[in-house]
């Protein structure tokens, strides 16, 4: 399973910086709030934790509301999308700042490609962090000064091994795992099953690949569908929400078991 060396290094660095921060801001993908906690949350034990359900414009609104209600039973949480004013996040962070401190330090954490860097750039009003649709863009830790609030942006982190096929499949669907990194075909087919259930597709993965590839002209020499290119394009389109708004984590009551 995909696990670049910089993720392991990031975890070591995060441990070093934890004493210097007051609050942990964990970014989740609203489409898969459980799957996007696939890292050692005990790293942040003893710290105040805030959650943002990001990319809520790509998720089923009804489920997002259910997740907010559930998570708020134990932790502060808000949803956020690219079309919302960033003041919503600024107010959220500041409302949980320690009043007597002149400076509040907040560490931003999450799995790859949940939108940490995009949020950093929106809060700062400048392009301070690299962004992209591919996971693993942020490679190092960096402090971002916003007056009396300092934000520590961090690379995406994950469990070193993802033993749960459903979690890996959901991370693939939202773009937190690059499709070319998936060695086990059963994870790809499981991801397709979750996706086709949302659209009521009655085709096997192979049938869907062939039809999709032909429609988009992904044809290799000999008039055969280029299945690798087709597969990559499908999962990229799914992760970008081009097929619609879906929530893959529907078992809200499992939150406390994480």
UniProtKB/TrEMBL annotation:
Tell me the keywords, alphabetical order. Answer: Cytoplasm, GTP-binding, Nucleotide-binding
Domain G intervals: 105-169
Q: Where in the cell is it found?
A: Cytoplasm
| Cross-referenced Pfam families | MMR_HSR1 (PF01926)
Q: What does this protein do?
A: Required for a late step of 50S ribosomal subunit assembly. Has GTPase activity.
The record's NCBIfam families line, in alphabetical order, gives: GTPase_YlqF
Entry's family note: Belongs to the TRAFAC class YlqF/YawG GTPase family. MTG1 subfamily.
Report the protein name in the record.
Ribosome biogenesis GTPase A
Q: Which organism is it from?
A: Thermosipho affectus
